[in-house]
């Protein structure tokens, strides 16, 4: 969604400032005040304009908060969608857009009474990870956005290191210990998380998650024993929940070692829970379909 059409005249570049934290970094604060969000927004706008000078012609909207990547990588890109919708409704921004003059405008959403708008509220269950992201959207003239979007997709992952002043300000304002700060498009972030999941042994699950994010109307199967059987369709992931006998028939036919079978089934169930947790963290609904011996799975 680095270049997504909102209407016939306005397009979006969607990205994030990614903060890689040092081991043992304090949790810090997830939210910034309105004033601090504006200060950080000015630094981010200056960085983006250094990468592509035309970015200064666009409106920048950002949240004064940091999130786990799973919160940004959910079907429909809810954080970026909320940023765009809230910026559209902001009175000054709306007036500028109606008059075609939103060039260089920064719309930063900070906390009021310790809260952000509900659509931008960080998930407390996803706090404390080693990689935090600050989502942003650039909007404006379609041709300008298209050029910037193409350039960012081509170059940002290689050249998008945040300025030292930006990284230090983010570290100070959030109370974090930042090792690296760089800009990514959503596709870059998606590729980064795919690589992390591969290293964590979750590569078999990735095609289902990728379909949910990039092609939600598509259909995708995970049918690769010894992995759990899963099917993504109709906007949800369905995981086959086998009885012990059905699992043995499908995964361990002819094995008569009861102790090994018990350990294998326990591992299989843990793997199912792991897959369901990852999908759920990304906002993909998960249902389990009970499957018995001698009955084909109905997913």
**Poorly predicted runs of 5 or more residues:** 1-10, 93-101
Number of strands: 10
**β-strand amount:** 15-25%
> Pairing-aware structural class of the strands and helices?
alpha+beta
Number of helices: 10
How many structurally independent domains?
2
Mean of all residue-level pLDDT scores: 88
Order of helices and strands: EEHEHHHEEHHEHHEEEHHE
State the end-to-end distance: 30 Å
| Biggest pleated-sheet summary | 6 strands, mixed
- Shape label: elongated
Query: Roughly how many Å is the radius of gyration?
Result: 22 Å
The quaternary structure here is single chain
Helix fraction, binned, reads 40-55%
Explained architecture:
- The chain is of the alpha+beta class.
- It has two domains: 4-199, no CATH class; 204-291, no CATH class.
- Helices cover 42% and strands 21% of the residues.
- It is built from ten helices and ten strands.
- It has helices at 34-51, 69-72, 78-89, 91-98, 142-159, 164-174, 186-199, 206-214, 244-251, 258-281; strands at residues 4-5, 10-21, 59-63, 106-109, 131-141, 178-185, 220-222, 230-233, 236-242, 286-291.
- A hairpin with a 4-residue loop joins strand 1 and strand 2 (10-21).
- The radius of gyration is 22 Å and the shape is elongated.
In a few lines, what is going on in this structure?
With 299 residues, the chain is an alpha+beta fold. It has ten helices and ten strands.
């Amino acid at each position: 969604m680095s270049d997504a059409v909102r209407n016939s005249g306005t397009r979006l570049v969607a990205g994030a400032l990614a903060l890689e934290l040092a081991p043992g970094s304090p949790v810090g604060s997830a939210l910034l005040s309105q004033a601090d969000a504006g200060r950080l927004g000015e630094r981010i706008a200056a960085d983006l304009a250094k990468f592509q000078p035309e970015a200064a012609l666009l409106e920048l909207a950002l949240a004064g908060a940091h999130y786990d990547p799973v919160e940004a990588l959910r079907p429909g890109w809810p954080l970026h969608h909320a940023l765009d919708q809230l910026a559209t409704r902001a009175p000054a921004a709306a007036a500028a857009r109606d008059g075609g003059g939103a060039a260089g405008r920064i719309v930063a959403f900070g906390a009021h009474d310790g809260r952000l708008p509900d659509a931008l509220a960080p998930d407390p269950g996803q706090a404390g990870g080693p990689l935090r992201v600050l989502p942003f959207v650039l909007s404006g003239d379609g041709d300008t956005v298209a050029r910037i979007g193409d350039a960012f997709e081509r170059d940002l992952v290689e050249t998008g290191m945040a300025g030292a002043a930006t990284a230090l300000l983010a570290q100070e304002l959030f109370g974090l210990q930042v090792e690296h700060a760089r800009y990514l498009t959503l596709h870059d972030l998606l590729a980064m998380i795919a690589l992390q999941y591969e290293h964590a042994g979750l590569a078999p699950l990735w095609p289902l998650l990728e379909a949910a994010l990039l092609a939600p109307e598509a259909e995708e199967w995970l049918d690769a024993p010894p992995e759990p059987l899963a099917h993504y369709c109709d906007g949800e992931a369905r995981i086959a929940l086998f009885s012990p006998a059905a699992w043995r028939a499908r995964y361990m036919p002819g094995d008569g070692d009861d102790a090994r079978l018990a350990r294998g089934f326990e591992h299989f169930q843990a793997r199912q829970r792991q897959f369901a947790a990852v999908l759920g963290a990304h906002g993909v609904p998960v249902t389990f379909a009970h499957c018995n011996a001698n009955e084909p799975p109905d997913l």
